[in-house]
Design a protein that fits this description.
- The protein has 11 helices and no strands.
Length: about 200
Protein backbone atom coordinates (compact mmCIF):
# COMPACT_ATOMS: atom_id res chain seq x y z
CA UNK A 1 0.00 0.00 0.00
CA UNK A 2 2.83 2.37 0.93
CA UNK A 3 4.58 1.72 -2.40
CA UNK A 4 1.35 2.34 -4.28
CA UNK A 5 0.97 5.77 -2.66
CA UNK A 6 4.63 6.64 -3.29
CA UNK A 7 4.37 5.62 -6.96
CA UNK A 8 1.14 7.58 -7.41
CA UNK A 9 2.76 10.68 -5.88
CA UNK A 10 5.82 10.34 -8.16
CA UNK A 11 3.57 10.11 -11.21
CA UNK A 12 1.57 13.19 -10.21
CA UNK A 13 4.65 15.21 -9.19
CA UNK A 14 6.83 14.67 -12.27
CA UNK A 15 6.57 17.06 -15.21
CA UNK A 16 4.43 16.08 -18.14
CA UNK A 17 6.36 14.48 -20.98
CA UNK A 18 3.65 14.78 -23.61
CA UNK A 19 1.89 18.10 -22.87
CA UNK A 20 3.23 21.61 -22.38
CA UNK A 21 2.70 23.60 -19.20
CA UNK A 22 0.57 26.08 -21.17
CA UNK A 23 -1.69 23.31 -22.45
CA UNK A 24 -2.12 21.89 -18.94
CA UNK A 25 -2.84 25.36 -17.50
CA UNK A 26 -5.39 26.12 -20.21
CA UNK A 27 -6.96 22.68 -19.76
CA UNK A 28 -7.19 23.23 -16.01
CA UNK A 29 -8.77 26.64 -16.56
CA UNK A 30 -11.36 25.26 -18.99
CA UNK A 31 -12.14 22.35 -16.63
CA UNK A 32 -12.55 24.86 -13.78
CA UNK A 33 -14.97 26.99 -15.81
CA UNK A 34 -17.01 23.90 -16.73
CA UNK A 35 -17.07 22.72 -13.10
CA UNK A 36 -18.01 26.18 -11.79
CA UNK A 37 -20.72 26.60 -14.43
CA UNK A 38 -22.14 23.17 -13.66
CA UNK A 39 -22.03 23.82 -9.93
CA UNK A 40 -23.83 27.18 -10.24
CA UNK A 41 -26.38 25.72 -12.65
CA UNK A 42 -27.15 22.91 -10.20
CA UNK A 43 -27.33 25.45 -7.37
CA UNK A 44 -29.84 27.59 -9.25
CA UNK A 45 -31.94 24.58 -10.30
CA UNK A 46 -32.14 23.54 -6.65
CA UNK A 47 -33.19 27.09 -5.81
CA UNK A 48 -36.54 27.02 -7.61
CA UNK A 49 -40.05 26.41 -6.36
CA UNK A 50 -40.41 23.50 -8.78
CA UNK A 51 -37.44 21.78 -7.16
CA UNK A 52 -38.69 22.51 -3.64
CA UNK A 53 -42.10 20.96 -4.24
CA UNK A 54 -40.80 18.06 -6.31
CA UNK A 55 -41.14 15.81 -3.27
CA UNK A 56 -44.66 15.09 -2.07
CA UNK A 57 -43.74 15.97 1.54
CA UNK A 58 -43.46 19.63 0.58
CA UNK A 59 -46.06 19.72 -2.19
CA UNK A 60 -48.81 18.11 -0.13
CA UNK A 61 -48.10 19.90 3.13
CA UNK A 62 -46.53 23.35 3.28
CA UNK A 63 -47.04 24.25 -0.39
CA UNK A 64 -50.78 23.66 -0.11
CA UNK A 65 -50.83 25.98 2.90
CA UNK A 66 -48.84 28.65 1.07
CA UNK A 67 -51.44 28.72 -1.73
CA UNK A 68 -54.04 30.18 0.65
CA UNK A 69 -51.88 33.12 1.81
CA UNK A 70 -51.22 36.63 0.58
CA UNK A 71 -47.65 35.61 -0.22
CA UNK A 72 -49.02 33.37 -2.99
CA UNK A 73 -51.84 35.45 -4.47
CA UNK A 74 -52.49 39.15 -3.87
CA UNK A 75 -53.68 42.38 -5.46
CA UNK A 76 -50.19 43.42 -6.60
CA UNK A 77 -49.32 40.15 -8.36
CA UNK A 78 -46.01 39.81 -6.50
CA UNK A 79 -45.53 36.23 -5.36
CA UNK A 80 -43.02 34.79 -2.93
CA UNK A 81 -41.68 31.36 -3.81
CA UNK A 82 -40.08 28.84 -1.43
CA UNK A 83 -36.49 30.07 -1.98
CA UNK A 84 -37.52 33.70 -1.47
CA UNK A 85 -38.30 32.95 2.17
CA UNK A 86 -36.06 29.98 2.92
CA UNK A 87 -32.82 30.66 1.03
CA UNK A 88 -30.64 33.75 1.53
CA UNK A 89 -29.81 35.76 -1.58
CA UNK A 90 -26.13 36.38 -0.74
CA UNK A 91 -24.00 33.60 -2.29
CA UNK A 92 -22.02 32.60 0.80
CA UNK A 93 -25.13 32.52 2.98
CA UNK A 94 -26.92 30.56 0.26
CA UNK A 95 -24.20 27.89 0.24
CA UNK A 96 -24.34 27.63 4.04
CA UNK A 97 -28.14 27.27 3.91
CA UNK A 98 -27.91 24.62 1.18
CA UNK A 99 -25.49 22.64 3.35
CA UNK A 100 -27.96 22.88 6.26
CA UNK A 101 -30.79 21.82 3.98
CA UNK A 102 -28.89 18.73 2.89
CA UNK A 103 -30.05 17.26 6.21
CA UNK A 104 -33.57 17.36 4.76
CA UNK A 105 -32.43 14.88 2.10
CA UNK A 106 -31.90 12.36 4.90
CA UNK A 107 -35.47 13.03 6.00
CA UNK A 108 -36.64 12.25 2.47
CA UNK A 109 -34.56 9.07 2.25
CA UNK A 110 -35.61 7.74 5.64
CA UNK A 111 -39.24 8.91 5.40
CA UNK A 112 -39.34 10.94 8.61
CA UNK A 113 -42.09 13.24 7.25
CA UNK A 114 -43.43 11.25 4.29
CA UNK A 115 -47.03 11.13 5.59
CA UNK A 116 -49.28 13.92 6.82
CA UNK A 117 -49.31 12.38 10.30
CA UNK A 118 -45.50 12.20 10.51
CA UNK A 119 -45.24 15.75 9.18
CA UNK A 120 -47.72 17.06 11.76
CA UNK A 121 -45.86 15.32 14.58
CA UNK A 122 -42.62 17.10 13.55
CA UNK A 123 -44.22 20.40 12.47
CA UNK A 124 -43.37 22.30 15.64
CA UNK A 125 -39.74 21.11 15.66
CA UNK A 126 -39.34 22.06 11.99
CA UNK A 127 -40.99 25.44 12.53
CA UNK A 128 -38.84 26.20 15.56
CA UNK A 129 -35.68 25.49 13.55
CA UNK A 130 -36.81 27.89 10.85
CA UNK A 131 -37.90 30.56 13.34
CA UNK A 132 -34.52 30.32 15.11
CA UNK A 133 -32.72 30.69 11.77
CA UNK A 134 -34.76 33.76 10.87
CA UNK A 135 -34.32 35.25 14.33
CA UNK A 136 -30.54 34.73 14.10
CA UNK A 137 -30.28 36.51 10.75
CA UNK A 138 -32.68 39.34 11.71
CA UNK A 139 -35.35 38.03 9.30
CA UNK A 140 -33.08 38.69 6.34
CA UNK A 141 -35.26 36.86 3.83
CA UNK A 142 -38.31 38.91 4.91
CA UNK A 143 -36.33 42.11 4.55
CA UNK A 144 -35.28 41.22 1.00
CA UNK A 145 -38.82 42.20 -0.01
CA UNK A 146 -40.19 44.15 2.96
CA UNK A 147 -37.86 47.10 3.42
CA UNK A 148 -38.48 48.85 6.73
CA UNK A 149 -37.38 52.19 5.26
CA UNK A 150 -40.18 52.12 2.69
CA UNK A 151 -43.05 51.12 4.97
CA UNK A 152 -45.97 53.54 4.93
CA UNK A 153 -47.04 53.49 8.57
CA UNK A 154 -50.13 55.58 7.77
CA UNK A 155 -51.46 52.76 5.58
CA UNK A 156 -51.06 50.21 8.40
CA UNK A 157 -53.43 49.45 11.26
CA UNK A 158 -52.76 51.35 14.48
CA UNK A 159 -51.31 48.30 16.18
CA UNK A 160 -49.05 47.37 13.24
CA UNK A 161 -47.88 50.96 12.86
CA UNK A 162 -47.00 51.17 16.56
CA UNK A 163 -45.16 47.83 16.53
CA UNK A 164 -43.23 48.59 13.35
CA UNK A 165 -42.25 52.09 14.38
CA UNK A 166 -41.13 51.13 17.91
CA UNK A 167 -40.12 47.48 18.31
CA UNK A 168 -38.58 46.98 14.90
CA UNK A 169 -36.99 50.41 14.75
CA UNK A 170 -35.36 49.90 18.14
CA UNK A 171 -33.98 46.52 17.09
CA UNK A 172 -35.76 44.74 19.95
CA UNK A 173 -37.69 42.49 17.61
CA UNK A 174 -37.45 41.14 14.12
CA UNK A 175 -40.17 40.17 11.62
CA UNK A 176 -40.44 36.52 12.71
CA UNK A 177 -41.16 37.48 16.32
CA UNK A 178 -44.65 38.67 15.35
CA UNK A 179 -45.27 37.05 11.98
CA UNK A 180 -45.02 33.32 12.72
CA UNK A 181 -47.60 31.44 10.67
CA UNK A 182 -47.80 34.13 7.98
CA UNK A 183 -47.21 31.66 5.14
CA UNK A 184 -47.77 28.26 6.76
CA UNK A 185 -50.06 26.91 9.45
CA UNK A 186 -48.78 27.26 12.98
CA UNK A 187 -47.94 24.07 14.85
CA UNK A 188 -49.60 23.28 18.16
CA UNK A 189 -48.28 26.12 20.34
CA UNK A 190 -49.76 24.94 23.64
CA UNK A 191 -47.30 25.38 26.46
CA UNK A 192 -45.43 28.19 24.71
CA UNK A 193 -45.34 31.47 26.60
CA UNK A 194 -47.22 34.26 24.83
CA UNK A 195 -49.51 32.02 22.76
Amino acid sequence: MKNLIINAWKTIAKPSVHYSLGFLTLGGFIAGVIFWGGFNTALEVSNTEEFCISCHEMENNVYEELKTTIHFSNRSGVRATCPDCHVPHKWTDKIARKMQASKEVWGKIFGTINTREKFESKRRELAEHEWARLKANNSLECRNCHDFDYMDFTAQSGRASKQHSTSLASGEKTCIDCHKGIAHELPDMSGVEGW
